[in-house]
Amino acid sequence: MNTKVTYKIFFCTLYFVLNTLYLPAIAQNSKLLKDGNKLMKKHNFKAALKEYDKVAAKYPDYPETYAHRALAKFRLDDQQGALDDINKAISLDSNFYTAYSIRAQFNVAFKYFKEAVADYSRCIELQPLNEMALYQRGLARIEADQNEAAVKDFEAALKIKPEFTECLYQKGIARMRMKNYSAAIRDFNEYLKIKPQMPMAYLKRGICYDKTGQNYKACKDWLRASMRGLAEADGLMKMKCK
After folding, report:
1. Which residues contact residue 18 at a Cβ distance below 8 angstroms, ignoring those fewer than 6 apart?
2. Residues of the chain with pLDDT under 50
3. Full-model pTM
4. Whether the Cβ atoms of residue 181 and residue 171 lie closer than 8 Å to each other
5. What residues contact 14, with CB distance under 8 A and at least 6 apart?
6. Are the beta carbons of 113 and 143 closer than 8 angstroms?
7. How far apart are CA 68 and CA 51, in angstroms?
8. How far does Cα 36 stand from its chain's mean position?
9. Which domain holds residue 49?
10. What CATH number does the domain containing 51 carry?
11. Is position 13 within any domain?
């Protein structure tokens, strides 16, 4: 699992959050907003945008309207429009957790990683025990080359939710970037005890073994990764394994 945004998952996650965590009565009961939501589910983003425009004109002071419209603009590749709307939502409610989360994920998608870290930090201020916010900030910190801080975020998330195993994998990735290969191996070991079928973890651990002069173990891991369908491992075996 890499740290890049998968747009389909990204959109579905934000849409679910927006529709379940933060919708006051005025937004829930608005026929126009519901119409826009239905159109979004059908991927008719232009029509949804028109419906959200109507809601914004009728209820200009409700932050949820702008958060919904930001998602529509994002899907229409209107980067600045999406950011303008989510900024508007935050200006109307400085404690709107979901809006900060959306803006953070927009910033990741647009490769504004330091800005994403700042937004996730605000999310954590609002919900200090939210392990997903810590995890997402850790991912953004890896992209921003703040790897030591990323490790701390993943460790904090694991303290809150010990079964959050992806944190173990991402700790390994952060430590690889720090060239702390021995510590990364330990992280991948823990991860693979829980998820032994994950080929990318074998590939990454193999790279760490190779960096620490353990070629035999590296080749065994790359073979495991190859047997699980990871073509990248084949190239490494051809170059480094007899």
Report:
1. 64, 67, 68, 71, 98, 102
2. 1-11, 16-17, 19-29
3. 0.85
4. no
5. 71, 101, 102, 105
6. yes
7. 10
8. 25
9. 1-110
10. 1.25.40.10
11. yes
